[in-house]
Amino acid sequence: MSLAFTALATEMDDENVALHRARVHMVAHLHGPVLLDQLARAAGMGKFRFASLFTRHLGCPPHRYLMHLRVAYAKELLAQGERPGKVAYEAGFCDQSHLNRWFRRLVGSSPGAFRERCCEAAGTHDGRASILWSNGSDAGAYPLIHAHAEVAARSCCTDVLHSGRALPVAPLT
Questions:
Q1: What ranges do the domains of the chain cover?
Q2: Backbone phi and psi for residue 146, each to the nearest 5 degrees, phi listed first
């Protein structure tokens, strides 16, 4: 193995580790504001280099990736029967209209309509639906958003996710 190839492989590993740290930071702070400066600091690099590297490796800018994570978490909460106003706050959106705009853009329906479909599918009439769990049961595991955070960003990051270059994000505890 050549010295140049070894240096390149080490640099790629360092980049993947840095991006992984930033993605973990996103998931850990999903409910509040996440600034580009914070993500760059978590990755250990400048914000312009970080934004460029993130987009190159994951196929979408950090903000769009964050919005995909938030919408996936909102879907999870709505499937539990939570009201859209509460979901907007819990998922880190600034208000319900912000949730509505992103939800319609990524899911194709309003959060309220999504919640109703989940409740109908679960056969509940009280507005509560069963959450989807990573092990297929209704209890005893952590929610899908924490187990498979990169699935949330699949629509903007499909090439990277299927190429094996993206590292999984650790579940929240």
A1: 3-163
A2: -80, -30
